[in-house]
Amino acid sequence: MPRRNSFEKSSEGDFQEYIVSKQTRRRMKIRRVLRAGLAGVLMFAALVVGYVAMEAMLQVSELPLLQGDNATTEAPTTTAEPLPTLPEPQGEPMRSFYVPIAMLNQRTQSYQLQAQARQLDTNTAVMTFKDSNGWLTYRSNLIQMDLLGAAARARHRTDWTLFDLKRRAEQRVIAVIHTFDDPLAATLMPGAAIVHRETGEPWLDAEDRAWLNPWSPAAQEYLLAVIREVAAFGPQNERVDDILLRGVTFPAGDLSEAVFPGVDDPDDLAARNAVLREFLEQAAQAAGDARLIVMVPRAGAENADALGGDLWNSAADYIAIDVRGTAANLNEDFWRTRPVFPVVESPEAGEGMRDYIVLVDDAQ
Questions:
Q1: Mind listing the pLDDT tens digit for each residue in 234-263?
Q2: Average pLDDT over residues 56-70
Q3: pTM
Q4: Residue 177 reports pLDDT greater than 90
Q5: Nearest to 190, CA basis, from 218, 215, 220
Q6: Closest CA to 109 of 175, 174, 171, 156
Q7: N or C: where does the chain have the smaller number of CB atoms within 10 Å of the terminal CB?
C-alpha cells in the first residue's frame, strides 16, 4: 500500500482528532505553568511567615525571664550612641571654612580660596565684616563711618571675594559682625560706651578693651546700621546668606567700677537679658533675608550673668555655641532639641559633626 504523502489532505476525522489532541496538550501546559506559579507564591509566603516568626522569637528572647517568685532580668546590651543630629537647617548640612582677613586683599587670593573650598569639600565660607577691634573689612557708605573712621582700613576687596565664593565656588557665606565688644566705637563714641565710675572715661575690661553700652540707643543704632549694610552688601543674588553676631553680651568679670549711663540697676540680670533680646529683635529685622545667628560661649549656653540668663527662644534663627579648644559634649539635651551650631577652630575639628562653623579670632 503506497505511503500517504504528508501534504495530502487529511480526512475530516483525522483533522478533528488532531485539533482535540492539540487543545488537550495546551490545557496540560497551562496547568503546569499555573502549578509552578502557585508553588512559587506558596514558597514566597512561607519565607515571609518564617521571617515574621523569627523576628517575633528574637523579640521575645530579649524580654526578661520570669522564673516563679524569683524574677530575674538580664542587663541589656549597651552600644555607643552616635553623635546626635542637630536640628536641620535649610538646605544641606553646613561644612564651613574660615576666610582670613588678610586674604581679602587681592583677586589672586580669591582664586586660592576657591581652590581651598574644593579641596576641603566645604559648602560655606565664613568671612569677617567687622572685626574684634571695631574695624570694617569692606568699604562702607554709612555716615557713622565718616565720624568713626572705622572703614579707614577697609582697602580689602571683600566684594570680589564674596562674588567669587558664591558664584564660582558655590559657597554659602556667613558674615561675622562684632557688636558691643567694639573698643574703637566705644572710644570714639563716649556717650555710647560703658564708662569708668571715677574718671568718666571709657571703662576697660581685664584685657584693656572698651565696650559699647548695650543699653545705649546710640550704640544699638550704630550696630544695627552696620547689620543692615552688610545684609544689603552687593547685588541681590550675591549677598551674604547668614549674619553671625559676636559680643551680644555684657562684659564678664568685675563690673564694680563700670557705669552704664541712664541705667539705675545694671546688676539686674533680668533687665540685662531683656535688653539683649530686644537688640536681637531689631537685628533680625535689620538682617532682612539673611538668617541671624548669635554666638555665645559654651559656659553661657544655658545661663550666664553676662547674658542675664540665656538667649534661647530669642529672635535669632540659630545659636552658635563656642566649643573651640574644648571637648565638645554633643550629648547634652540642647544639642538635640535646639537650633544650634557648634563653633570649631578648623574643619578637622568639625569632623563627625553634621553642621559646624569654623571661626578664627582674626583682626586687622
A1: 887 889 999 999 999 999 999 999 999 989
A2: 42
A3: 0.74
A4: yes
A5: 218
A6: 156
A7: N
Cα–Cα distance for residue pair 233/313, rounded to 1 Å: 28
Q: Does 142 lie in the same domain as 287?
A: yes
How is residue 126 written as a grid cell?
Answer: 565664613
Geometric angle at alpha carbon 270, from 341 and 309, rounded to 5°: 30
Between strands 258-259 and 96-99, the pairing is unpaired
% of the chain at pLDDT higher than 70: 72
- Between CA 261 and CA 266, with CA 262 as vertex, the angle to 5 degrees is 75
User: Which three cell numbers mark 129?
Assistant: 565684616
137/109 Cα distance (integer angstroms): 15
Clarify whether residues 193 and 324 are in a common domain.
Answer: yes
Residues 31 and 106 in one domain: no
Query: How does pLDDT run across 1-42, given as a tens digit for each residue?
Result: 444 444 444 444 544 554 445 555 666 666 665 566 655 656
3-state helix, strand and coil shares in percent for the chain, rounded to the nearest 5: 40, 15, 45
Cβ burial, residue 364 (10 Å; 0-12/13-18/19+): middle
Residues spanned by the domain of 121: 96-358
Direct distance between the N- and C-terminal alpha carbons of the chain, in angstroms, rounded to an integer: 120
Q: How many C-beta neighbours within 10 Å does residue 359 have?
A: 22
